[in-house]
Fold these 4 entries.
Entry 1:
Amino acid sequence: MTEKQVGWTKAQINLFMDYLTVVIIDMFESLEFDRTYIEHTLAGKDKLTVLLWCNNLDSKYKAALADKLGVELNDFTITLKTLTQREC
């Protein structure tokens, strides 16, 4: 697939992933998870690993993450799957 077909440039994906990581950490901290544990879990992980991790979240946490990002759960799920396929 080309960038035009996917609709995201590498720079846009990188910005989204940076933002997603911050939102993940904030969200789990608000759910009373240990912030240090989540930071350690995601530290040094490449984009694909973080995307796969998000894809495998329990539906409750995936919904909370979509809500924190201000997007519909279905749209968020499709975006995660699309970006994961692109990164593979």
Entry 2:
Amino acid sequence: MQHGDLAHDEEITPCVAKVHSFTGAFLFSLETQTTIGYGFRCVTEECSVAILMVVLQSVLSCIIDTFIIGAALAKMATARKRAQTIRFSYYATVGLRDDKLCLMWRIGDFRPNHMVEGIIRAQLLRYMEDKEGRMTMEYKDLKLLNDQVILVTPVTIVHEIDHDSPLYGLDRKALSKDSFEILVTFVYTGDSTGTSHQSRSSYVPREILWGHRFNNVLQVRKKYYNVDCLQFEETTEVYAPYCSAKQLDRKEHEWNRTKKTLDRGTSTSTLEVRDTSFKAVALISSSEDPEDLMKAVNQDSR
């Protein structure tokens, strides 16, 4: 307006050609920002301010597009709602499974569309003090019996406490007084988007229930299976030895060696009584002292 572009004077070279009204200026601004370029309206060399404004609007257009596209992609990439449907049990349990001490926890997917596949990884984290007095973080992987799952129904993840497990030498008292954290990571692929997601949880000693097992959530009907989600967190107290897996294996080895010696001069009827496995004796024992297990075995063999 100051240059006189709207005066329709043919002797004046306008700053923007073919712009004679506010509507024309708005259309030129829209064509500049969207890079349409119909070819009728253009900036001339008459006004440096007009050239500067076109440059600023072009830069501003790129910035706006970047923020809008970035926000949309970030919204699509984040899986907060998807991660909220993956649930870990609040407690982990330690109990006998196939005559072996095992650490168990439960994981479930409570969304109608299920994942393609999932991989579970567990690590035990413990702060260790070296000889120089420095604190370092120690990481040890826990070997899982079922580390690849598809969560059609809630699944109980099992870690067998064997000689390779960092929990091998911990009994009930030692585990409750120990200081460590078990970090559980679940990486899975969604079936709707095909993108990878990750959910994590952790367990400390006060969140590990010794001598418990998870209740069944799967109920068999005539024509279908019913999942009782109310039993997802529920556990039942069961008999389990209070000693560590290391002590249990050692006592079982001693029991088997003793039984071989007794079998040489024993009748069949007496042998059937003594044929009770060491795990069964350990199962009914409620003593905190693992040495009492062998006393129970010796009394049973008399």
Entry 3:
Amino acid sequence: LCSWIGSSRAILGPKYTDIGSSCSEAMQLLAEHEQFAKVCLNNETVIRRTQNVGDRLISSGHYATGAIKSQM
């Protein structure tokens, strides 16, 4: 998640510091920000689930434990 946010920062940063010049523009920016927040939360959920699966594989002695650890 952190790397995704970092790579998106250059694109999204300037857009998410704008407050708009009218009420309708501000409302549109707010809607875009809320959508971005939802995407972040969804990505966090996927990352946590993936990490949990990796942890379970490692703790069960999976044959690819070394490769799994290097990806986490």
Entry 4:
Amino acid sequence: MSVVLQHDGLVLKRTPIGEVGLEVEIDESKFGKRKYNRGHLVVGQWVFGGVERGSNRCFLIPVERIDKDTLLKIIEEWILPGTTIISDCWKAYDCLEKKGYKHFKVNHSVNYKDPESGQHTNTIEGLWRQAKFSLPQFHRKKQFINGYLAKFMFQKMCKAQKLDPLVEFF
């Protein structure tokens, strides 16, 4: 069994995803609420994640900053070299090929699915939807984001492997 975080006694092993011949979609998302329920100002926690196509193995990591150094460190820790990484066109990802990955960019300002290659980031976008939906609707606290994500990842892993969460937890 492998899941992503260690939180409140739940030890979750780190198992990198991807390998030569596999594809991993990566993205960053802010978990929070719009301030005053309007506009684009979102108060909350940045989370960086990746999902392996086919197996749906994934990782979600809360981060304080979404800068190049922070994200590259996570990519190198969680995604095996030789993997094809699919991302948006953010400049921080431009060096991935120099780091031993194949890299394909999807330009979301033009389309969400590349018409020539068929590449997209729909899988990671779906993961964001699932993860955000799993968060408590009320009294959500930024300080508990690790626990919320650990619970989500644990339940997702148990469902994917057809395991009983109670048996696996205890």
